Amino acid sequence: MEISPREKLVLQKVRRFEELEKEFLKFTYETCKPRTKDEAIEFILKAVDIACKACTTRNEIFDEIRDLPELRIYDRNALMLLDRLRKGDPFYSISFCENTTKSINIDKKANGAKYISINLDKANRAEEVWTSIEDSLTQKFDDFFDDFHTWFNIIGYYVDKTIIGPIISSSKVPDHILAYFNELKEIYAFGQYRSSLVLCRALLEMALYDKLKARGVFKVKNPKVTDINVAKEDNLNRYIDVAKRKHLITRASYEIAHKVRTTANSVLHAKDTKMQLNAKEVLEAMFDTIRIIENLYR
């Protein structure tokens, strides 16, 4: 299967990083110990040069993959190396570059990002090398800011959170439910509609479980499952039904709860299609969820 030009570029950079890491190890371990001050300076400058190139290549790799939803690489060694980079595993060249910032000619930009400015040859050629992913991205702050605000509406963000508001109750809502609710408000305000529906489902399940547990529903448990349909049963589906029988929710809330459940399930259990959602229907599901929770805690 042919890979895209961008994937080829990432693969080239990953292989380049591997070469630089090997070059750094070979140079630092196999070079004769410097005998004079000049030789020591030459040794350090060469080591820094290789390490800085590795650091820069690492930064370029992350620049390329940052917004990619998918990356196809069939080179097993490159895949393993990219996984190690992504997990933040230590590399000798990167560690050397980062440690060097603590001892030689460290500068700071106005935004606080650190980099090394070194003379790489006798012509006094200076080069800036950003020593961490965060610092590498920080120096692009203005570009990121402009890009972010091409799609993000800060006023709309606060409008959405204001419209949703709090859970209004007369008894204490458990902290873990409030934590999920606050996260729900955040992701909805950022336009993450599928995630919003999934959290609505989670909130309903948590709130119903809390109230059913208080009624003693879960005190008696049979550890033996004798029916495969029981084993496969949707917990929220069961909680809604039991809550209705225990008069924790009304008939209207029962139907609304099942509607939220089935809508969220269509997101959770999507097979080969992407469910299309809009802000209005997701907001309706959120308010349905909030009203049920409010009724449970009043």
Describe this protein's structure.
The chain has helices at residues 5-30, 37-65, 76-87, 92-100, 133-138, 141-148, 154-164, 175-189, 193-214, 228-231, 235-245, 251-268, 279-296; strands spanning 106-108, 114-119, 126-130. The protein has 298 residues and is mainly alpha-helical. The chain has two domains: 5-140; 152-296, Four Helix Bundle (Hemerythrin (Met), subunit A). The chain has a three-stranded antiparallel β-sheet. It is elongated, with a radius of gyration of 28 Å.
Strand order of the largest sheet: 1-2-3
Q: Work out the helicity level.
A: 55-70%
Radius of gyration: 28 Å
CATH class division of the largest domain: Mainly Alpha
The geometry reads as elongated
Low-confidence stretches: 105-111, 119-126, 225-232
Percent of residues in β-strands: under 5%
Largest sheet: 3 strands, antiparallel
CATH topology of the largest domain: Four Helix Bundle (Hemerythrin (Met), subunit A)
- Total count of helical runs of at least 4 residues: 13
Number of E-state strands = 3
Q: What is the straight-line distance between the termini?
A: 59 Å
Which structural category do the helix and sheet elements fall into? Answer: mainly alpha
CATH homology superfamily of the largest domain? Nucleotidyltransferases  domain 2
How do the SSEs run, as a string of H and E? HHHHEEEHHHHHHHHH
Looking at this protein, list some descriptive labels.
63% helix; Four Helix Bundle (Hemerythrin (Met), subunit A); 3 strands; 298 residues; 13 helices; elongated; 2 domains
